Amino acid sequence: MLESEAIIVGAGPAGSTCAWKLRQMGIEVILLDKQMFPRLKPCAGWITPKVLKDLNITAQTYCHSLTYFDRLYFHFKGFKIPVPTKQFAIRRYELDNWLVQRSGVSLYQHQVNTIERQNGAYVLDGKFKCRYLVGAGGTGCRVYHELFKTANPRAKERMITTLEEEFQYPIYDHRCYLWYFDNGLPGYSWYVPKNGGFVNMGVGGKIMGLKRRKETIRFHWNLLTKKLENLGLIKNHSYNPKGHNYYLRSNVTTFRVDNSFLIGDAAGLATFDMGEGIGPAVQSGILAAESIVHNVPYSLKSIGKYSFVNLLFPGRNYLKN
Length: 321
Ligand SMILES: Cc1cc2nc3c(=O)[nH]c(=O)nc-3n(C[C@H](O)[C@H](O)[C@H](O)COP(=O)(O)OP(=O)(O)OC[C@H]3O[C@@H](n4cnc5c(N)ncnc54)[C@H](O)[C@@H]3O)c2cc1C
Known about the structure:
The chain is of the alpha/beta class. The chain has helices at residues 13-24, 49-55, 92-103, 142-148, 207-213, 217-230, 278-294, 308-312, and strands at residues 2-9, 29-33, 46-47, 66-76, 79-90, 107-109, 115-118, 121-124, 128-135, 159-168, 176-180, 187-194, 198-206, 242-247, 256-257, 260-262. Strands 1, 2, 6, 7, 8, 9, 15 and 16 form an eight-stranded mixed sheet that branches. An eight-stranded mixed sheet has the order 3-5-4-11-12-13-10-14. Strand 1, helix 1 (13-24) and strand 2 form a beta-alpha-beta unit. Helix 1 packs parallel to helix 3 and helix 2 (49-55) runs parallel beside helix 7. The longest helix has 17 residues, at 278-294. The protein is globular. The chain binds flavin-adenine dinucleotide. Flavin-adenine dinucleotide (FAD) binds next to helix 1, strand 2, strand 3, strand 10 and strand 13.
């Protein structure tokens, strides 16, 4: 049995940030993830300056692709609205692995299935034992399902479904486009070009909204690929999109039970308007670590529910570096 003061299940941005902070503050911790890193994670990789600040990343310290956008091009009912802002994009394949490495915490490849209590400790699959357990396993997190689900069922209305692909492409248009409610989609689609010759494109919408319209996300994906072709943004590409579901800020209200915590998508923290989940994942990882170390209540009230305010007013302090 491998014992550690704290165990974090899931090594995405939530888990690796929590691990980084715990280690910095002197707590013995290990990470478990079912996947081998680096791993692919469906995500457009758009991040705000605040995420960089929270992660203590600058263009100098981050050694992978970091794309800067000084405006985003929103489209709404046929209108094109360029919004001046200061935003970034990363590649999740690179960032997530870098964050784990930077944390200095050991990552074990292991899929957690069972969680038991033994004399106040948590025992995972009879192989790992800890005093503090952090659930950072995303939408299907075992910690959520085993310890939190009954008291905190998630609202189906808040679940979004996505199809996305990131691939190398000879980019000539370096602008970031977002199309809201196109063809009745209860969500939005995007085109995000990235430094290093990659493009990320995808479509996401509320599952219940699609059901009511008797449509599938694949239907809207097909419309998006045609649109990109017509606009000349992507031509003659053989698509192979990946799907992923996650929750917008949900009705989950209990994020801590005894010494177990929920962070990131496991807690359902993505913003209502843009489905931004990296920032809330990072913030909740830091808050959980502080709660463990300083034995203070774990509250996620400080994590914003909307992204749009941060787009318009990205906060000058975050941009100094
Ligand atoms: C298509 C798409 C586009 C998106 N675009 C953006 C964007 O541009 N900007 C943004 O801010 N957010 C975006 N999001 C949301 C964002 O990706 C998530 O909110 C974010 O990844 C949450 O991080 P996390 O660490 O909580 O979970 P994840 O990144 O999902 O990490 C969870 C980890 O847990 C592991 N795991 C799961 N179950 C187990 C288990 N039983 N045992 C061990 N390990 C396990 C998984 O392998 C995974 O590595 C997007 C999401 C999607 C689907």
